[in-house]
Amino acid sequence: MGCDSQDVVVMGGGPAGSTTSTVLAQQGCRVELFERERFPRFHIGESLIPETYWALKRLNMLSKMQQSHFVKKYSVQFVNSRAEESAPFYFWDNKPHECSQTWQVVRSEFDLMMLNNAREHGVCVHEGTRVFDVLFEGHRAVGVTVRNEDGSFRDVRAKVVVDASGQNGLISNRLRLRVWDPVLNKGAIWTYWEGAYRDTGRDEGATLVLQTPDRKGWFWYIPQHDT
User: Fold this and answer.
1) Angle, CA of 187, 81 and 200, to the nearest 5°
2) Taking the CB of the first residue and of the last residue of the chain, which one, N or C, has fewer CB atoms within 10 A?
3) What is the separation of C-alpha 103 from the centre of its chain, rounded to a whole number of angstroms?
4) Strand 102-104 vs strand 124-127: parallel, antiparallel, or unpaired?
5) pLDDT of the residue at 5
């Protein structure tokens, strides 16, 4: 079992992990990121909001997004429980700025773009590498033990350990910090439809938010570039 040392270790290679590691690398930190899966990998959650523009700009991702084939999103529209449609809410009308056009992304592609962008900024990225344990000295996380694809283990120590493992919540579970909100005890069901209807022009990429007839739920309708 080897032992390395970094300024920062990041657990998780999704948007949170890639964003954090990129920003830290831009400031000159030595960052090592561990992701248990290999990208591209499927993930749900496709619709960006306009204010992500500023984070993408800071990460030097804007030009990549502008050159991508992701559906451009200019607005959102609501449909109530009586099937009455609101007027489209165009972001530009509220804030006339380039940031008012955002994107509907395919997460497998978007997350890979973000992870590769972290690499380009000097982050040492390991895919297919699971964080097996978090190393503590007292109440302070000082590194991780990782398991490589070949089954070998190694310790990586760091001044800071960032938990961007999403629902896995490695550190929060270890320290029993997670508190469930009983009011937000909700569930979601999702699926995809090929060739589904969409509007035309600048409404083609709109997110639709539709309330269910009983007014106890809603669903999102999010268009993708692959029909």
Assistant:
1) 95
2) N
3) 13
4) unpaired
5) 66
Instruction: Compute the distance between CA of residue 15 and CA of residue 146 in angstroms, rounded to an integer.
Output: 21
pLDDT band for position 226 (cuts 50, 70, 90): confident
Could you tell me how far CA 39 lies from the centroid of its own chain?
13
Contacts 24+ apart (CB under 8 A), 138-145: 139/175, 141/171, 143/9, 144/9, 144/11, 144/34, 145/1
Mean pLDDT, range 55-60, rounded to an integer: 98
pLDDT of residue 210: 95
The DSSP symbol for 117 reads H
Residue 115 CA to residue 19 CA, distance in Å, equals 8
Segment 62-89 mean pLDDT: 96
Q: What is the CA radius of gyration of the chain?
A: 20
166, 12 in Cβ contact below 8 A?
A: yes
For residue 15, whether the previous peptide bond is cis, meaning omega lies within 30 degrees of 0, is no
pLDDT in tens, 129-183: 999 999 999 989 999 999 998 999 999 999 999 999 988 888 988 888 888 898 8
- Residue 123 dihedral angles phi and psi, to the nearest 5°: -75, 135
pLDDT of residue 175: 87
Give Cα separations from 40 to 106, 110, 115, 128 (angstroms): 10, 9, 10, 12
What ranges make up the beta strands (E) of 80-206?
89-90, 102-104, 124-127, 130-137, 140-147, 153-163
